[in-house]
Amino acid sequence: MAEEVILLNFWPSMFGMRTMIALKEKEVKYEHREEDLINNKSALLLDMNPIYKKIPVLIHNGKPICESVIQVEYIDQIWSDKNPLLPTDPYQRAQALFWADFIEKKLCVCGRRVWRTKGEELKAANKEFIELLKILQTELGDKSYFGGDKFGFVDIVLIGFYCWFPAYEKFGNFSMESECSVLMTWGKRCMQRDSVSKSLPDPERVIGYVLYLKKLFGLE
Amino acid sequence: MAEEVILLNFWPSMFGMRTMIALKEKEVKYEHREEDLINNKSALLLDMNPIYKKIPVLIHNGKPICESVIQVEYIDQIWSDKNPLLPTDPYQRAQALFWADFIEKKLCVCGRRVWRTKGEELKAANKEFIELLKILQTELGDKSYFGGDKFGFVDIVLIGFYCWFPAYEKFGNFSMESECSVLMTWGKRCMQRDSVSKSLPDPERVIGYVLYLKKLFGLE
């Protein structure tokens, strides 16, 4: 049976970037459908993700898989013959899942506060954001990638932030290079992979999008 | 090599209950160490979970695994010969992970608001809590367990709420039986398993604990 793979996505989404990268790592051909999240969600999106009504949604042979981290795991399991993403060793696997969960629960939540707040709240968010990145930087250590020598699961979960860093720097008023240079080097290393560079938008475009959102939410 | 399995836990934790149930389902012998979370966390806990400093921590042959959902997956992978908990089919597996994530992200967060808030905030939390339970009830449908005929992963992730329901009812002023009778029947069914009934504390004791916390936080 010919595989039908559709990705419902929205270009600035770090979550959608994860799924795109995983598909590209596995060399899976897929149809990319851009959603208009702000003005007009498609009937297909509402039908395929009735609980959250959010992108990214991966539709594989008509069946939806929701939540980007779960999508990456699913892609790794289905197309297991090429570029394994998660370790097979149960302990290493649990560690990878732990850091993915940390990025989801802590960094994503705090990152939103960096561009959605002002004054003292923004100061606290900036401080926490940098602390969280430093924890991740310590975990990376002197390895090339989070899993060791090979680009893998945790790299995919985190790398979407790389194209958002200039926006965080601009609105949070800090310098990633001076705060987290090791993480920036890791980001540049990841960007040498086609799967990553072809999935991440231009950081200037992300800044423009955040400016648009700040106006929309009355934050400017 | 003899297996050394230690669980750092605190009895009212729904998260710790998940790990206990998974270990019991696999008939793994383990040492249970109760932590004094409020007054005196052990040096072992701080050493084994330096990021969150929280229970439950599963220590297997000296190595820590943190976060209960990840622990259940780990236990399922290590002791794979008995009572499989997660489906092997990638799509079914993705669905199970989706509902576990829903319980983590939505129900656990909202549940906390039911006993930590007052007035209008409490009313909104109650309403959302019941809506979330009804979504889970719809997903359960007329199946015996979330995965079908067999007790499994999503049941383990959710069942800890069962011994907290009387506390939610008391502080949220609603009736689980009239709001979510199908879920209550499922809870009773799960309680017939030794792994569950031996892991969940007496609901009256949970009510006492919540009363204690409310006083501690100045909510009474």
TrEMBL record, chains A, B:
<dbReference type="GO" id="GO:0006749">
    <property type="term" value="P:glutathione metabolic process"/>
</dbReference>
<dbReference type="GO" id="GO:0004364">
    <property type="term" value="F:glutathione transferase activity"/>
</dbReference>
<dbReference type="GO" id="GO:0005829">
    <property type="term" value="C:cytosol"/>
</dbReference>
<dbReference type="InterPro" id="IPR045073">
    <property type="entry name" value="Omega/Tau-like"/>
</dbReference>
<dbReference type="InterPro" id="IPR010987">
    <property type="entry name" value="Glutathione-S-Trfase_C-like"/>
</dbReference>
<protein>
    <recommendedName>
        <fullName>glutathione transferase</fullName>
        <ecNumber>2.5.1.18</ecNumber>
    </recommendedName>
</protein>
<dbReference type="InterPro" id="IPR004045">
    <property type="entry name" value="Glutathione_S-Trfase_N"/>
</dbReference>
<dbReference type="InterPro" id="IPR036282">
    <property type="entry name" value="Glutathione-S-Trfase_C_sf"/>
</dbReference>
<dbReference type="InterPro" id="IPR004046">
    <property type="entry name" value="GST_C"/>
</dbReference>
<dbReference type="GO" id="GO:0009407">
    <property type="term" value="P:toxin catabolic process"/>
</dbReference>
<keyword id="KW-0808">Transferase</keyword>
<comment type="similarity">
    <text>Belongs to the GST superfamily. Tau family.</text>
</comment>
<dbReference type="Pfam" id="PF00043">
    <property type="entry name" value="GST_C"/>
</dbReference>
<dbReference type="InterPro" id="IPR036249">
    <property type="entry name" value="Thioredoxin-like_sf"/>
</dbReference>
<keyword id="KW-0216">Detoxification</keyword>
<feature type="domain" description="GST C-terminal">
    <location>
        <begin position="89"/>
        <end position="210"/>
    </location>
</feature>
<dbReference type="InterPro" id="IPR040079">
    <property type="entry name" value="Glutathione_S-Trfase"/>
</dbReference>
<dbReference type="Pfam" id="PF02798">
    <property type="entry name" value="GST_N"/>
</dbReference>
<feature type="domain" description="GST N-terminal">
    <location>
        <begin position="3"/>
        <end position="83"/>
    </location>
</feature>
<dbReference type="InterPro" id="IPR045074">
    <property type="entry name" value="GST_C_Tau"/>
</dbReference>
<keyword id="KW-0963">Cytoplasm</keyword>
